[in-house]
Design goal:
By secondary structure, the protein is an alpha+beta fold. It has eleven helices and ten strands. The strands form three sheets. The protein has a four-stranded antiparallel β-sheet. The chain has a four-stranded antiparallel β-sheet with strand order 7-8-10-9. Helix 2 (about 20-30) runs parallel beside helix 5 (about 125-135). The structure holds zinc ion. Zinc ion binds next to helix 2 and helix 5.
Length: about 325
């Protein structure tokens, strides 16, 4: 199961308690999922979706609101084999207009440019609204691979509502338009984690955090290992280079011709090519620190340079 499905299945199980929230979730689903149209029998609202979990949620919400609805599954074979679920909802329920209740039309039953503000007045409803929009149009990448959350929307109005509502929770969405489709997205792990918290996907939040922590730890360990390896390599390179230099001195003038302190260090280096300067310092008869060893090494280098000059001359 994809991470998107996991999160959607998790939040689909949450059914709001308040009537305002039931309405807000239904509005969200009507706005973003499948198609919203007035049916062939005038006075019917059709909500179409390919996902059974969304059809079930829509059906549950209408039932809680005390509205009559029917759900049917339609099978198509052309252009390819697929099926959709259609929830049919009579627009007039008792003395209520469903479209007006969902904030989709104004008092004269004209489709509104923007949702009725009343639908998103309360914070409880805004959370539920985002949850519905995510269920109907959302995608979230598996955090083990990347951090990406998207709402894929049919209309500019839906994109604007989602965008504004995300902003009201302090999130920073991006928006892009392509071929008449609108994508509202969040990119950073913090933002996506916060979004999952807002819509109440607590298992999703945990999965997200865990994967982030693991990824973080892996990166840190890798950095440490790389750093360690680099230091080690540098020490070994330096050691081998000094060995070459000392061999040159030995061949030309013999180590016996060196001052005792220099000779001791030169012989130690030949025996321990991989040791760091500090380690060499500790191995001396009268131990010295790194800078002391460094000082003697410089002296050895001067001698080696002198020899190579004489060689050329
Ligand atoms: Zn509410």
């Amino acid at each position: 199961m994809s991470f998107t499905e996991q999160v959607k299945n998790e939040v689909a199980r949450i059914i709001p308690e308040r009537r305002c929230c039931l309405r807000a979730e239904l509005t969200a689903l009507a706005l973003v999922s499948g198609s919203l149209q007035i049916g062939p029998h005038p006075g019917t609202l059709l909500l179409t979706t390919a996902r059974p979990v969304i059809a079930r949620t829509i059906f549950k919400l209408t039932k809680r609101l005390g509205w009559q609805a029917t759900i049917t599954r339609r099978q198509y074979t052309r252009p390819r084999r697929y099926h959709v679920f259609v929830v049919e909802l009579p627009v007039q329920q008792g003395n209520l207009s469903v479209l007006r209740e969902l904030g989709l039309v104004d008092r004269k039953n004209r489709i509104k440019e923007r949702l009725d503000t009343r639908i998103l007045d309360r914070a409880c409803c805004r959370r539920v609204f985002l949850r519905g929009c995510f269920m109907g149009s959302g995608f979230i990448s598996n955090p083990d691979h990347s951090y990406q959350l998207e709402f894929n929307l049919n209309t500019g109005e839906a994109a604007r509502e989602v965008n504004t509502t995300l902003l009201r929770f302090g999130l920073a969405p991006g928006l892009r338009e392509h071929n008449g489709r609108y994508v509202v997205y969040l990119k950073e792990a913090d933002q996506i984690g916060e979004f999952l918290r807002v819509i109440g996907a607590m298992q999703g939040v945990l999965d997200y955090e865990n994967s982030r922590i693991l990824k973080d730890m892996r990166n840190r360990v890798n950095r440490l290992v790389n750093c360690e390896t680099a230091n080690l390599k540098k020490a070994v390179d330096t050691g081998l280079e000094q060995v070459e230099m000392i061999k040159e001195i030995a061949e030309r003038i013999g180590l016996a011709s060196l001052r005792p302190k220099l000779r001791e260090l030169a012989e130690l280096r030949l025996r321990h090519p991989e040791a760091s300067l500090t380690e060499l310092g500790r191995l001396l008869d009268k131990p010295v620190g790194k800078s002391g060893v460094n000082h003697r090494m410089r002296e050895l280098r001067r001698i080696a340079e002198q020899i190579s000059h004489e060689k050329k001359a």
